[in-house]
Design goal:
By secondary structure, the protein is mostly helical. 61% of the residues lie in helices and 1% in strands. The two termini are 23 Å apart. 45% of the residues are buried.
Length: 476
């Protein structure tokens, strides 16, 4: 078993390390502003960002980064990070070390070597940050392996599934970027593994409470997952007759992290939950408009060729037929995985809750739901354990397609970013597919095309699930 874990760690780490040597858009977008906040805490001990953005020659953004909407004047006119600060808090010690290390390496290494490697102090720092995120991706892959071992046909199958999910979008898309989604996904998977333990071993309740609270400090978009995990933890404690010490440890750690975020937000903005970037939607929006927007967001997250999940990760097409299989739903952890993912998705698709939509700006596909997407693989792995006949062929074809896509985006990671022009960069060499697949930002948006794809997916899922009921023997 130890060998399998080492193989997963080595393969995932080396793949991501190799990926960051290709041309990417790393260091741009939200992550540069998260890094500015981490730098301010690391070197100044505060979250007053004015001097950091004004620093000439700053390795973050090359000294040309401007706050835009990512940092705004808060109480007292102090320039504050508009994003949540959980990620900068955790990474501040690391930034304190690698920032001067990058400067030292750029001064010390031979100029000819740096030129040949196409490196300077800015890129060395960028790579050191990416390598730290790759370590988090390795930890995520190992959590997936432990989860899949419960329901996969064998440990070898669990190993293969863990590597496939970790090295496929949307995990791969963010595995080398300083965004909150990757650590959020790791924490959610860790909590899911502990709380869904079929042997009901007692988890470390203090760490469980702290992890749930930290999810909100990482990003307020995790709020539905936080609520679901609080409820699940309380039910688990009640069912296992947790001691007063366990209840106290869990509750104290949870409350401490939630109060910490509330105190930070209040100190910055004078509110307790919302920030300039995290506010509720328009409560006066007519219901008809809200329903239409929910349809756009839901179908877009699934099928949009630029920002949807299934264009880049068709492996998740198998989630629906697996959930339609009654025997799969009865396996431990399958229902909680689906419910946790669904709760998270609601906060993204309901406009009364989320004003930012489903695209997330200039982002890799499915970024807005990435922290819970790996949970959708839980029913898939459980379902494939008893696959026979036609279903096995369908699964093999979809897995093969996923591997091809992974290989393409590994060689060409810039294909993971699109420009809201209605076309997927991944499909540039296949214009026929570009024209066929739906895109909400296309020049001539056809809502009917999304409906057709939704119906086709539902029909395929029901057919595969029915063949499973008719043809598959019950798994032992």
């Amino acid at each position: 078993m130890r060998v399998r874990r080492r193989v997963i760690a080595a393969v995932v780490f080396l793949a991501i390390w190799g990926l960051i040597t290709h041309g990417t858009f790393a260091g741009s977008g939200d992550e540069a502003h998260y890094l500015i906040a981490a730098q301010s805490l690391a070197f100044d001990g505060d979250f007053d960002l004015a001097n950091n953005y004004a620093m000439p020659g700053n390795l973050i953004g090359g000294g040309t980064l401007t706050p835009d909407d990512h940092a705004r004047p808060g109480i007292g006119g102090v320039l504050r990070p508009a994003h949540d600060v959980g990620l900068p808090i955790v990474f501040a010690p690391y930034v304190r070390i690698v920032y001067p290390l990058a400067e030292w390496l750029a001064r010390t290494l031979p100029a000819a070597l740096l030129k040949r490697a196409r490196l300077d102090d800015i890129l060395i720092f960028r790579h050191l940050i990416s390598l730290a995120m790759a370590v988090i991706a390795v930890a995520l892959a190992l959590q997936l392996f432990e989860i899949f071992r419960r329901s996969a046909a064998s440990d070898a199958a669990a190993q293969c599934w863990a590597m496939l999910i970790a090295l496929s979008p949307p995990v791969l898309s963010l595995a080398f970027l300083f965004f909150t989604e990757l650590p959020s996904a790791l924490i959610i998977l860790w909590l899911f593994r502990l709380l869904s333990d079929p042997d009901e071993r007692r988890p470390p309740w203090f760490l469980v409470g702290a992890a749930i609270g930290f999810l909100l400090l990482l990003h307020v978009r995790n709020i539905a997952a936080v609520a679901a995990l609080i409820a699940w933890s309380a039910v688990r404690l009640s069912r296992t007759r947790g001691s007063s010490r366990e209840w106290t440890a869990w509750g104290a750690a949870l409350a401490a992290l939630l109060l910490l975020r509330a105190a930070i937000v209040h100190a910055f903005w004078g509110t307790w939950l919302t920030t300039p970037m995290a506010v509720a939607g328009d409560a006066a929006m007519p219901l008809s408009d809200a329903v239409r927007e929910m349809f756009v967001r839901t179908t877009g997250l699934l099928f949009d060729q630029e920002f949807g999940l299934l264009t880049y990760a068709p492996i998740y097409l198998l989630a629906a037929p697996s959930l339609l299989d009654r025997r799969t739903r009865e396996r431990p952890g399958v229902r909680p995985a689906f419910l946790l993912a669904a709760a998270y998705g609601v906060t993204v698709v309901v406009p009364y809750i989320n004003i930012h939509g489903w695209i997330g700006g200039w982002s890799p596909p499915a970024r807005m739901v990435m922290p819970v997407v790996p949970l959708l693989a839980v029913p898939v792995v459980a379902w494939t354990r008893s696959v026979r006949g036609v279903r096995a062929a369908v699964i093999a074809a979809i897995v093969s397609l996923q591997i091809v896509i992974d290989a393409v985006v590994w060689q060409w990671p810039k294909a993971l970013w699109n420009y809201e022009d209605g076309t997927s960069a991944l499909l540039e060499s296949v214009p026929a597919l570009q024209r066929m697949l739906p895109a909400w930002n296309g020049p001539s948006v056809l809502a009917l095309r999304f409906v057709v794809f939704l119906i086709a997916w539902a029909a395929m899922s029901m057919l595969l699930a029915r063949r499973g009921r008719d043809a598959s023997a019950p798994s032992q």
